[in-house]
Automatic annotation (TrEMBL):
<feature type="domain" description="Helicase ATP-binding">
    <location>
        <begin position="185"/>
        <end position="369"/>
    </location>
</feature>
<feature type="short sequence motif" description="Q motif">
    <location>
        <begin position="154"/>
        <end position="182"/>
    </location>
</feature>
<dbReference type="InterPro" id="IPR044763">
    <property type="entry name" value="Ded1/Dbp1_DEADc"/>
</dbReference>
<keyword id="KW-0347">Helicase</keyword>
<feature type="region of interest" description="Disordered">
    <location>
        <begin position="1"/>
        <end position="122"/>
    </location>
</feature>
<keyword id="KW-0547">Nucleotide-binding</keyword>
<feature type="compositionally biased region" description="Low complexity">
    <location>
        <begin position="1"/>
        <end position="23"/>
    </location>
</feature>
<protein>
    <recommendedName>
        <fullName>RNA helicase</fullName>
        <ecNumber>3.6.4.13</ecNumber>
    </recommendedName>
</protein>
<dbReference type="Pfam" id="PF00270">
    <property type="entry name" value="DEAD"/>
</dbReference>
<dbReference type="InterPro" id="IPR014001">
    <property type="entry name" value="Helicase_ATP-bd"/>
</dbReference>
<dbReference type="InterPro" id="IPR011545">
    <property type="entry name" value="DEAD/DEAH_box_helicase_dom"/>
</dbReference>
<feature type="compositionally biased region" description="Basic and acidic residues">
    <location>
        <begin position="102"/>
        <end position="112"/>
    </location>
</feature>
<dbReference type="InterPro" id="IPR014014">
    <property type="entry name" value="RNA_helicase_DEAD_Q_motif"/>
</dbReference>
<dbReference type="GO" id="GO:0003723">
    <property type="term" value="F:RNA binding"/>
</dbReference>
<feature type="region of interest" description="Disordered">
    <location>
        <begin position="553"/>
        <end position="584"/>
    </location>
</feature>
<dbReference type="InterPro" id="IPR027417">
    <property type="entry name" value="P-loop_NTPase"/>
</dbReference>
<keyword id="KW-0378">Hydrolase</keyword>
Length: 609
């Protein structure tokens, strides 16, 4: 009989299990708490040096040539920009598309992307999406700004996305739109540019995919240039990591099944020949990482001249110092139509003002949408912070993992994602966990793409229920059953923390996030304490003292200094750029929101590829 990993930890501690355990250095040799006779040093954090007395932290192109009308149950937009593009008709036939072959991808039988879902135990797949707790969203504050913002919808039925897409929404078991979808879909369908900031795990992928797919279905794009071996996609979706691009591709394929809209993915680390072959077979929506796309553009295998929709997922990350030059090259220096001709959709859970300012170069008379409280730190994610010395982190982590054996979800072991700062640190921790009987895999930028995919698959399936990761896995990844996120090493930036913990507590489900804090994380004390307080989490008194100390010593440089009720605030409202109007929706009690930090601190880019 196969024993569980926690059992094998017990066995190894008893000397009967893992023979590799002896290979681990003495500090790494794990002894479960019940077999030990000592208390953890981390349980009683040393008080910080006397702090200065300090108060405790308290708890436009609007009408771009067309009117948006609400006709017969769906939004119709007379996009002025479409008329500027040659060859774009607009005879949307509800439920079908123009000249697109149902069930065929340019002569090939279309693979049913729902096949695996249907083969799965129905009760599980039902739980995944229809089990979403929409009540958790009732009290969510929403802010829109910009001129003539189209009104939100309450149901998918209110917007005619087309029969084929509607069927796919049903196949996905999406019963009603999430808050970001309620607002973003009508805004995008009306043809407006959009900067959307909404909590992690709240359904942003569908929020930008549905309008793109529906738009392509509804219009005729039959006059694409014919240049041998060059692909002319109509939509480009960029994301910062290979894994996220693959995930968006998988989702987009489900949403576009039998619509005739063809989705292709291109990302680095994988052989380019296969991707070229796919592109040659035709592409409507290209999902890509920036590096591989630049390669394809330079080889003239892709032209952006027909791009009608540009979406940046994790847009703040895409426009920070690591990626901005590549993004500018793709968007501004190649042959992509300018803002106002193409429609641009930017999505993230975090949007620092400095990045908003950069992003506005890519947009035309856009709507800003903020949904939900800061980042993902809603009540759905229970946040804990523990004082743990660097030297105690491994044994403390193993204690947490050991304790989890007792608290499986629905009789199943939940998955645990452990974030570390460096690639070497990831390797070392994975090794230590494995030799101590905790089946772990790791993922970081020094791994081959094959190794990365293998690790992710093994984690998703529960074969290795622990994944040690750098920030390469911090954003966007939607892995069901991630019950616990451990910040073994805290990031230097509170926004990175928001994205990391957002790998749990997704789509209305509960999750747990534990952070190990020590003197090395002083700059995170105040933003972390503020964030936890805003999310109604218990802030340990010692963290409050560190936060006060950090404030007084000037150690706090994080960008979200003021705290905010929203994941971001429209930077246009701060200065002379404020031409639009602002609407607030829902959100329960008042309290307004403070400044969204401003300033853009240097991000840690080393863990990214
Ligand atoms: N309307 C809906 N009803 C039920 N489930 C939904 C709905 N929309 C999306 N989901 C599910 O919610 C989960 C999270 O969605 P998604 O990955 O798009 O979140 P996100 O907002 O992009 O998160 P992140 O900020 O981490 O990238 C997915 O499993 C998705 O299938």
């Amino acid at each position: 009989m196969r024993t569980s990993w926690a059992d094998s930890a017990d066995n190894s501690a008893n000397g009967s299990g893992n023979t590799n355990a002896s290979a681990c250095p003495p500090r790494g040799a794990y002894v479960p708490p019940h077999l030990r006779n000592r208390t953890l040093s981390s349980e009683a954090p040393p008080p910080p040096p006397a702090a200065h007395p300090a108060p405790l932290p308290v708890n436009d192109r609007v009408n771009h040539g067309g009117q948006v009308t609400h006709q017969g149950g769906y939004f119709k937009a007379d996009h002025g920009r479409q008329q500027q593009q040659q060859g774009y008709g607009s005879s949307f036939q509800s439920g079908g598309w123009n000249g697109r072959g149902v069930g065929r991808e340019r002569g090939r039988r279309e693979v049913n992307p729902f096949e695996n879902d249907e083969a799965e135990d129905l009760s599980i797949s039902e739980q995944e999406n229809t089990g979403i707790n929409f009540d958790a969203y009732d009290d969510i504050p929403v802010e829109t700004s910009g001129e003539n913002v189209p009104p939100p919808v309450n149901t998918f039925a209110e917007i005619d996305l087309g029969d084929a897409l509607n069927q796919n929404i049903q196949r996905c078991k999406y019963v009603k739109p999430t808050p970001v979808q309620r607002y973003a879909i009508p805004i995008s369908l009306s043809g407006r540019d959009l900067m959307a900031c909404a909590q992690t795990g709240s359904g942003k992928t569908a929020a930008f995919c549905f309008p793109i797919i529906s738009g392509i279905m509804r219009e005729q794009y039959n006059q694409r240039p014919r240049v041998a071996r060059t692909a002319f996609p109509l939509a480009l979706i960029l994301s910062p990591t290979r894994e996220l691009s693959c995930q968006i591709h998988d989702e987009a394929k489900k949403f576009s099944y039998q619509t005739g809209v063809k989705v292709v993915v291109a990302y680095g680390g994988a052989p380019i020949t296969q991707q070229l072959r796919e592109l040659e077979r035709g592409v409507d929506i290209l999902v890509a990482t920036p590096g591989r796309l630049v390669d394809l553009l330079e080889r003239a295998r892709v032209s952006l001249q027909m791009i009608r929709y540009l979406a940046l997922d994790e847009a703040d990350r895409m426009l920070d110092m690591g990626f901005e030059p590549q993004i500018r090259k793709i968007v501004e220096q190649m042959d992509m139509p300018p803002p106002g001709i193409r429609q641009t959709l930017l999505f993230s859970a975090t949007f620092p003002k400095e990045i908003q300012r950069l992003a506005s170069d890519f947009l035309s008379s856009y709507v800003f949408l903020a949904v939900g409280r800061v980042g993902s730190s809603t009540d759905l994610i229970a946040q804990r912070v523990e004082y743990v010395l660097d030297s105690d982190k491994r044994s403390h982590l193993m204690d947490l993992l050991h304790a989890q054996r007792e608290t499986g979800i629905d009789g199943k072991q939940g998955l645990t994602l452990v974030f570390v700062e460096t690639k070497k640190g990831a390797d070392a921790l994975e090794h230590c966990l494995c030799v101590n009987g905790f089946p772990a895999a790791s993922i970081h930028g020094d791994r081959t793409q094959q190794e990365r995919e293998l690790a992710l698959r093994s984690f998703k399936t529960g074969n290795t229920p622990i994944l040690v990761a750098t920030d390469v896995a911090a954003r966007g990844l939607d892995i069901p059953r991630v019950a616990h996120v451990v910040n073994f090493d805290l990031p230097n930036d509170i926004d990175d923390y928001v994205h990391r913990i957002g790998r749990t507590g997704r789509a209305g489900k509960m999750g747990l996030a534990t952070a190990f804090f020590n003197e090395g994380n002083l700059s995170m004390a105040k933003p972390l304490a503020d964030l936890m307080q805003e999310a109604n989490q218990e802030v340990p008194a010692w963290l409050t003292r560190y936060a006060a100390r950090a404030t007084y010593s000037g150690g706090h440089r994080n960008r979200r200094s003021g705290g905010s009720r929203f994941g971001g605030r429209d930077f246009r409202k701060d200065g002379s750029l404020n031409k639009g109007t602002t609407d607030f929706h829902g959100g329960g009690t008042g309290g307004g929101y403070g400044n969204y930090g401003g300033g853009y601190g240097q991000g840690v880019t080393s863990a990214w590829d």
